[in-house]
Amino acid sequence: MIDLVDVSFTYDNQTPALDNINLHVDKGEFAFIVGSSGAGKSSIIKLLLREKVATSGTVTVNGYNLNEIKAKKIPEFRRTLGVVFQDFRLIPTLNVFDNVAFSLRVTDASNRYIRSRVPYILNLMGLADKAKRFPHEISGGEQQRVALARALVNDPPLIIADEPTGNVDPELSYEIVDLLKGINECGTTILMVTHEHDIVRHFGGRTISIEHGKVVFDEFIGGRNEGK
Ligand code: ADP
Hints:
This protein has a 6-stranded mixed sheet with strand order 6-7-8-3-9-10, sandwiched between helices. Strands 2-1-4-5 form a 4-stranded antiparallel sheet, covered by helices on one side. 32% of the residues lie in helices and 28% in strands. The chain folds into 2 domains: 1-80 and 156-228, P-loop containing nucleotide triphosphate hydrolases (Rossmann fold), CATH 3.40.50.300; 92-154, no CATH class. Strand 7 (158-162), helix 6 (170-185) and strand 8 (189-194) form a beta-alpha-beta unit. By secondary structure, the chain is an alpha/beta fold. Residues 11, 13, 15, 17, 35, 37-43 line the site of adenosine-5'-diphosphate (ADP).
């Protein structure tokens, strides 16, 4: 699903960001990536989304070798991913329904399918009564749930969530991770970047810690809510 082999990455201005990263995430896993500011978390995400290319080593995601992928294949590759960002990135001029439908429209899905699929996913995310609202008319936690719905609507095998709780109230952060955990239990692989140690301690699970561009820890930790 995700395979980084001996990956190093240096920005154009010669700032080294990643130093010989080896990371393998299997289908069906839920993994946290943690690390302090400047550790290299965003750089890993940029490589996984093919916004940047590794300086050395190989990056494979969903069967695509991202070192060798041709430019014209990149949109096809990106459609195999659901991505959730810290700042939601909803389209302000579209209502909740159309923000989610947008992901389907770019794949040429039929209107009939969109009319059944979008309400189904909004319902799953607890947003059934918000379909006609615009992003500025709902809370931060709700906006992030819309972003999750948009990431999910194409049923991608892998969801990458980059600090998804960074802009929502602390009590709602747990709700967002609960939703991600539920999605994972249905078979979707999830990689979630966070700097919130409380969340990781609460949920537990595979935790990959990055420091100074290296993986310094990659193990399962027990969560406080285990057995709940
Ligand atoms: P994190 O996401 O964990 O905060 P980053 O991946 O953003 O860390 O940063 C890793 C290193 O790369 C840091 O030293 C940072 O200053 C540097 N860096 C990040 N973005 C850029 C950029 N666009 N150009 C140059 N250096 C960068």
